[in-house]
Amino acid sequence: MPSVEGLGARRAALQMLDSVLRRGQTLDAASSSVRNLSPPDHALAVAISGETLRRLPDLDALIDSATRQSLPDDSKARTVLRLALAQKAGLGTPDHAVVATALPLVDGGPRRLVHGVLGTLLRRGLPKMDAPRLPDDVEHRWRSAWGDAVVQSARRLIASRPPLDLTFNDDGDAQAYEGVSLAPRHIRIPSAAVAELPGFGEGRWWVQDLAASLPARLIPADAREVLDLCAAPGGKTMQLAAAGHRVTAVDSSGSRLGRLRENLKRTHLDAKLVEADALKWKAGRQFDAVLLDAPCSATGTFRRHPEVLYRARPKVIAEGAELQAQLIDRAASWVTPGGALIYSVCSLEPQEGEEVLRAFLARNPEFRSEAPQGLPDFAVASAEGWVRILPGMLEDNGGLDGFFMARLVRGG
Ligand SMILES: C[S@@+](CC[C@H](N)C(=O)[O-])C[C@H]1O[C@@H](n2cnc3c(N)ncnc32)[C@H](O)[C@@H]1O
């Protein structure tokens, strides 16, 4: 049989989607386990998988509108239909290429069904999908926590390409760079190939969502010794080192610490790196400030990592909250009296943010919240003094990752 052009990329996308949706992998992990593809085909497979995950509930509704047969969620036929339609909706792939690269994926299976559904939908024409629905459970959770306007913003944001935020080693350098500055040492530019941008090789900046750069900005300027817990790949470590703190950076993942080491080398910055489980590590001393950027469901990063919405099941969030509670207790024990503890998560789940903080403060009355100072105007503090970044903030400027952060001070 003659080979169909671009089939390899679609086959790889099918494999990636299966790893993400059925086995709960991240798209990064799923894509790095696919080998033997040319770089352009690999990039296409990742793009198809991403577009599919951005629009999954809408794609499923379309598929169900075109057949009476019930296709199980994890059936190959449904996944092939999803990824075929996602190419049309998100990448503008021509109809004939959509069909020609989908059918061989179901050879020996429900080829006629897939052909029939695709034919019906492509003839009808796909509706615009510039604000696709999120999974029902996520919409329900976020609507009750944050309101419907936030859900509507999240729908718009998931369909669009987020801009690129750069954090600079030096504010003067940022001022001279072409782009929009929304905070000191920050520049926002349209999405681009990072390694080709000016200043990358010289290490003048690193890529870091503006929201992700806020927690390190809460470290008091006069804190000399700073402990950065759960530090890799090191966006916050680099900020702290660039601001002149003496940083000890701890992470349990050797491979992620390797990336942190490379990042420090490229940016000519310095920190002491420790590979250790923070729940077992013995610091043997206290620090003027501790930053805990805790592992979490990462649902705030849904614009770049749409699969987080499918991985963040209630059990995963509850387990995350338990780990965060243990980590913040450990982090607190290393704060010197009068010192600061910064807690942050890139999660849009109150269970991993506000609720962890509330329970921590109830267990540890020697700590109190301190309203943040020096953050950009959009980062408004709550009555408690905590900062919650939601979809919708700076939406006209390209939006922000969802985040939660708070600064606590230990009574002296
Ligand atoms: C949200 S990421 C950190 C991002 C990082 N702070 C930055 O700005 O680039 C969470 C990190 O926690 C690490 N981690 C998870 N459990 C840990 C533990 N028990 N002890 C230390 N690090 C842990 C993970 O390896 C991961 O690198």
Spell the H/E element sequence. Answer: HHHHHHHHHEHEEHEHEHEEHHEHEEE
Q: Major sheet, described briefly? A: 8 strands, mixed
**Are there runs of 5+ residues with pLDDT below 50, and where?**
none
The beta-strand count equals: 11
Task: From the alpha carbons, calculate the radius of gyration and give it in angstroms.
Answer: 23 Å
Number of helices: 16
Strand content: 5-15%
Alpha-beta classification:
alpha/beta
Mean pLDDT: 96
Task: Identify the overall geometry.
Answer: elongated
Q: Percent range for helical residues?
A: 40-55%
Measured between the Cα atoms of the first and last residue, the distance is 77 Å
Bound molecules: S-adenosylmethionine
Characterization of the model:
By secondary structure, this protein is α/β, with parallel strands linked by helices. The chain is 42% helix and 14% strand. The protein contains 16 helices and eleven strands. The protein has helices at 7-21, 27-32, 39-54, 56-65, 76-91, 95-102, 111-124, 136-146, 148-159, 171-175, 214-217, 235-242, 254-267, 308-311, 314-333, 354-363; strands at 164-168, 186-189, 205-207, 225-229, 246-251, 272-275, 287-293, 335-345, 367-369, 387-389, 403-410. The strands form two sheets. Strands 4, 5, 6, 7, 8, 9, 10 and 11 form an eight-stranded mixed β-sheet that branches. A three-stranded antiparallel β-sheet has the order 2-1-3. Strand 4, helix 12 (235-242) and strand 5 form a beta-alpha-beta unit. Helix 5 (76-91) runs antiparallel to helix 6 (95-102). The radius of gyration is 23 Å and the shape is elongated. The model has no long low-confidence stretch (mean pLDDT 96). Bound molecules: S-adenosylmethionine.
